[in-house]
Amino acid sequence: MKQLLHLAAAMLLAAGSSLVHALDTDPPQGAHEVVRQATDAVMSAVDEAQAYVDAEPERFYDQLQEILDSVVDFRGFARGVMGPYASSERYRSLDAEGREQLREQLERFTEVMRVGLVRTYGKGLLAFGGSRIELPELSEEESAGSRVAVRQLIFSEGTEPYVLVYHMGRDRDGSWKLRNMVIENVNLGEIYRSQFESAARKHGGDLDQVIASWTAVEIDT
Fold first, then answer.
1. What would the pLDDT profile of 124-179 be if each residue is shown by its tens digit?
2. H/E element, 207
3. In a domain, 219, yes or no
4. Distance between CA 177 and CA 179 in Å, rounded?
5. CATH number at residue 8
6. pTM for this structure?
7. Domain membership flag for residue 41
8. DSSP track, 106-133
9. Three-state SS across 160-183?
């Protein structure tokens, strides 16, 4: 399972690179084309990193961070992971001081997730260089609307491919943002939400302690 999560993060980074390319393209492209264009660009970057990453890991992490910052909805992802602790209902139930505290906690957790995901799973991206990747075409119905699920097949060592599903949505400016990912029926967002809720119960609902002690979940086989 750990390998699958590493692969999920690797493909998330791939989608991020694709979205950067799409935002520089006129006219705007659909989500399927955005993800398709990720493959060559990201795997090329991975090949380049093989030559320097051992000596300059920060260079690799910085490159990944730069790609992701403009294309992944880290704040939305972090809020989803916090679940009921950052819900609109809870926010409305708080007084002014409590609302300010929750906003600050969300911003702090967003930064923790932003940096932690790249550093925890960046090496997972390197492990899948050279994999064959296919994207089944979307139907007109599947490609319509402001939210799209794009399937991707990753052929690695086994005979059966890994199946990834990218959940993407349009931002207010119309650009595509990566919202969540499901790999082999494993929902990455739900896994992190379960981890957050478990930590919140452990710390008696003290979100400051949860955020301070947060580490990305690692699930062993």
1. 777 766 677 787 887 766 666 788 888 888 887 777 888 888 888 887 877 777 88
2. helix 207-212
3. no
4. 6
5. 3.10.450.710
6. 0.78
7. yes
8. HHHHHHHHHHHHHHHHHHHHHTTTT-EE
9. CCEEEEEEEEECCCCCEEEEEEEE
